[in-house]
Amino acid sequence: MDVGLIGLGRMGRGMAASLVRAGHAVRVWNRSPGAAEGLAGVTPVASAAEAFAGDAAITMLADDAALRAVIVEGGLLDGPNPPGLHLSMSTISVALARELAAIHARAGVPYIGAPVFGRPDVAEKGALNILAAGARQAVARAQPLLDAMGGKTWDFGPEPHRANAVKLAGNFMLIAAIEAMGEAAALAEGHGVSGADLLELLTSTLFASPVYKNYGALIAAQSYEPPGFNLKLGAKDIGLALAAAGAAGVPMPFADVLRDTLSEAVRQGDADKDLAALAEVARRRAETNRAPSG
Ligand code: NAP
Question: Are 112 and 130 in contact (CB under 8 A)?
Answer without folding.
Answer: no
